């Protein structure tokens, strides 16, 4: 069980308030950290978007309380604020909703799709280079897979260029696929 001082330190660090304010709120709430957070939020001492504390057990450390990450809707206990209503604490540490996080993820994914290129070469000459996003769209519509397979058997080699996908391990896998196609061609000719 955490002592009042440990709880006050956690509140102080997590919400950027003084240890004295944290201790006072804890004492007024009989050491209940969730009620103390609710009270501090109702008094306007802490920001509602930053009011995020979980009573879930962190099995990696065996403790409860703030783990540095949002656990979704963090308050499992209802507490009535000064206006008599039950506050909802559904935002994460950054104040973003789930939809905003999803949009941010999609935006980053699209940016990576445009900043990395798929390249096809034959006989040492680049015959096509296009953003990975275009390749993904073609894959979704199903027209790219047959073309890629035909290209492999026609002597094309594929690679990726760019910060995220232009890694040696990825391009080695692409070369292994081309080598396999070459072996199959040779066996078929026999």
Report on this model:
There is one protein chain. The protein has helices at residues 4-15, 19-28, 33-42, 98-115, 132-140, 144-153, 168-189, and strands spanning 57-58, 63-64, 117-122, 125-131, 156-161. With 190 residues, the chain is of the alpha+beta class. It has two domains: 1-95, no CATH class; 109-189, no CATH class. The strands form two sheets. Strands 4-3-5 form a three-stranded antiparallel beta sheet. A hairpin with a 2-residue loop joins strand 3 (117-122) and strand 4.
The SS-based structural class is alpha+beta
Discrete helix count: 7
How far apart are the termini? 76 Å
Low-confidence stretches: 61-92
* Overall tally of domains: 2
Radius of gyration: 28 Å
- Looking across the biggest beta sheet, what order are the strands in? 4-3-5
The amount of helix comes to 40-55%
Mean pLDDT across the residues is 77
**How do the SSEs run, as a string of H and E?**
HHHEEHEEHHEH
Strand content: 5-15%
Q: Give the tally of β-strands.
A: 5
Shape descriptor reads rod-shaped
How would you characterize the largest beta sheet? 3 strands, antiparallel
Summarize the structure in short.
The protein has two domains: 1-95, no CATH class; 109-189, no CATH class. It has seven helices and five strands. The chain has helices at residues 4-15, 19-28, 33-42, 98-115, 132-140, 144-153, 168-189, and strands spanning 57-58, 63-64, 117-122, 125-131, 156-161.
Name some characteristics of this structure.
single chain, 190 residues, alpha+beta, 2 domains, 3-stranded antiparallel beta sheet, two-stranded antiparallel ribbon, 7 helices, 48% helix
């Amino acid at each position: 069980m955490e002592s009042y001082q440990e709880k006050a330190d956690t509140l102080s660090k997590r919400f950027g308030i003084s240890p004295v304010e944290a201790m006072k709120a804890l004492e007024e709430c009989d050491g209940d950290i969730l009620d103390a957070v609710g009270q501090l939020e109702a008094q306007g001492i802490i920001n509602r978007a930053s009011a995020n504390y979980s009573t879930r057990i962190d099995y990696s450390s065996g403790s409860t309380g703030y783990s540095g990450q949002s656990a979704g809707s963090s308050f499992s206990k209802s507490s009535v604020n000064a206006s008599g209503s039950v506050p909802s604490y559904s935002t994460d540490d950054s104040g973003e909703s789930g939809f905003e996080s999803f949009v941010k993820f999609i935006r980053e994914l699209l940016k990576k799709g445009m900043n990395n290129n798929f390249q096809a070469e034959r006989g040492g000459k680049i015959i096509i280079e296009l953003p990975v996003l275009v390749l993904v769209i073609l894959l979704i519509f199903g027209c790219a897979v047959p073309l890629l397979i035909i290209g492999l058997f026609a002597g094309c080699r594929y690679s990726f260029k760019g910060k995220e996908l232009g890694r040696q391990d990825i391009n080695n896998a692409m070369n292994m696929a081309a080598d396999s196609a070459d072996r199959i061609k040779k066996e078929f000719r026999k």
